[in-house]
Amino acid sequence: MSERPGPGDSDRQVASDHASTAIEITAVTGIGELRPGDDLARLIVDQAPELRDGDVLVVTSKAISKVEGRLRPVADGDRERREQVRQQAIDDETTRVVARRGQLRIVQNRQGLVLAAAGVDESNVAADEIALLPVDPDGSAAALRDAIRARTGRSVAVVISDSMGRPWRTGLTDTAIGVAGISAIFDARGRVDSYGNELQVTEVAVVDELAAAADLVKGKLAGVPVAIVRGMARGGRLPDDGLGTKRLIRGADDDLFRLGTAEAIQLGRAEALGSSQPAPPLHHDAVATISSMQSRDDAEAALRHAYLGFLAARTDAMWRSCSAGHLTASAIVIDPRRQAVLLTLHPRVGRWLQLGGHCEPEDASLLAAAAREAREESGIEGLRLDPVPLELHVHPITCSLGVPTRHFDVRFLAVAPPNAEARRSEESVDLRWFDWADLPEQISPELPALLDRARARFGG
Description:
With 460 residues, the protein is α+β, with helices and mostly antiparallel strands. It has 2 domains: 10-70 and 134-265, CATH 3.30.1330.100; 276-457, Nucleoside Triphosphate Pyrophosphohydrolase (Alpha-Beta Complex). It has helices at 10-13, 40-47, 61-67, 79-93, 137-152, 206-218, 261-273, 281-291, 298-313, 366-378, 447-457, and strands spanning 24-28, 56-60, 71-73, 94-101, 104-109, 114-116, 129-131, 157-166, 169-180, 185-187, 203-205, 226-230, 326-334, 340-345, 352-353, 355-358, 384-385, 391-398, 404-415, 430-435. Strands 13, 14, 15, 16, 17, 18, 19 and 20 form an 8-stranded mixed sheet that branches. It is elongated.
């Protein structure tokens, strides 16, 4: 049996972790003011200590933006005009507004980053300029890495950093927006910690940690755009999956906080009022069918109007996916002599019920849905259905959604053809004919009244 490592056995773990036993961070000073077209690789090599294989160069995004010409001019440096240029630049760089408060906008920009003002910045640039983020930060990092290797023969990694705020935390920190030569993520899932616990969700954003660490020597006011982080390599090599920052951008399906304020309100409204999709033809048939029903008393009239109100609020009310509730169609099937009724023992409810179930997209009408369900559950062809529903009934149930919901059942009367032979379907525990006067004990409480109404319909 292998010995389980204890809390003190850090040296035994370091080879399988992203952490290093020691790192060294050095500011690269003397680069000076950068302008479009400057050779940043030459300036770094000239000012930096001798580079080694496995070093990580952390370069502020502002330096890349300047040499790549990602600057918007501001005429005369006028403050009002500068703000107009900044707001227009934010508009141009924004693909989705996440949140807004006054002039402050948190947005998703063209690079897929969610940050304030789309990364448009007026700090550390001249008064007559506004800086935008690089168009392709990963590409910029790769180009700088290649240029440094061409000059020095050294294989270094390049991380392009930018300052970002964080939800629920005051203060800025530097994070990576462009990467080349090092894997952005260390995936520890499935590995075992020093106590024997298997890690389930641990993915470490190594390049963000490097960007934040490098800012401790670059700062925001000293005019130092580059730092060298040394000590991350193993044998002069850095892990590199070649994906740049792609794995740092959380996908929409996994982002629990993706929705901005306006989007959340819009989604909440849609969920409360129903699908924004047009109502299907079956929905229109349901409205027409229920509207034409005659009510015997005020209670029936109120229930009919409740159905119509629900249909008006939910264009998806015909489908089982509508978790607030949905319409179903059922049928009381009686024999040609009008002396017996066909009932099914429902597996989920545990009671004898009439035949019926959910509507399907292929159903042309509620009547067609009831006929299909009765045919499928009885095996009887040639059922004749009265097109006028017998009654409406709402009941709570946990159906195939697996969550509590409501069935707005529309109930029809069907007559079986002579000599019909019923066959139980897989959806039923049992299926039997029962005489009117000899019903089973385990019936739905409202079934006797429904049967009385069916008998009254045909004059029985």
